[in-house]
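Two quick folds needed for the group meeting slides. Do the first one here.
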Amino acid sequence: MKNDVLADDLLEGVAAISVYTGMKPRRVFYLAEAGKLPLFKIGNKWCARKSTLVTFITALEGGNEVA
């Protein structure tokens, strides 16, 4: 995988995730801490892949159980 592809898919920080999802930053942080969003930490910063978030939300829309 080329680094520029990963960089295009990576969201760094609650603010970036908030803008991408349209959720308020506090809600993103709450869902992240509760393990209800597919986020991960790099150091102390919450991060996400755009592609993973899209897959996760699409599964929720379809009524599929998400692990």
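Then this one, please, same format:
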Amino acid sequence: MSNQTLRKRFGFDQSKNVLVFQVIGVTKEAGLIKADDSASTSTRYARYLPFWA
């Protein structure tokens, strides 16, 4: 999952980017997703995996 794929899944446009970042941040804090180490280190292009992966 990435910022872009989450926006697409929820049907948000670019103006909802802040909301998507907040959802990703809260989900990371809850331990439900983790950063994909094989992806870019840039937060803009970061990808995330479910905690069980």
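Slide caption for protein two: The chain has a mean pLDDT of 87.
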